[in-house]
Amino acid sequence: MAELKFEIVEHVGVLSENAKGWTKELNKVSWGDHPAKYDIRDWSPDHTRMAKGVTLTDEELATLKDILNGDVEDDIDEDQML
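^ thats the sequence. predicted structure below, dont judge the formating
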């Protein structure tokens, strides 16, 4: 299997830590020489291993912030989310 190339460009903050020392973090990460995106995932203490996560563009992160702050109306019909 090919080695996964990544670089944590900016450490934004730790959201939580589990009993094994892994931390859920918000970072700006460049994956495979691509432009860095915001990234939420669990990392091992030495940052050599990671779990699955979510990457967000600057615009997606801004939209998420607006949603969490209640500044955006939801366009999705909740009946369709079943």
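The CA atoms of residues 64 and 72 lie 9 Å apart.
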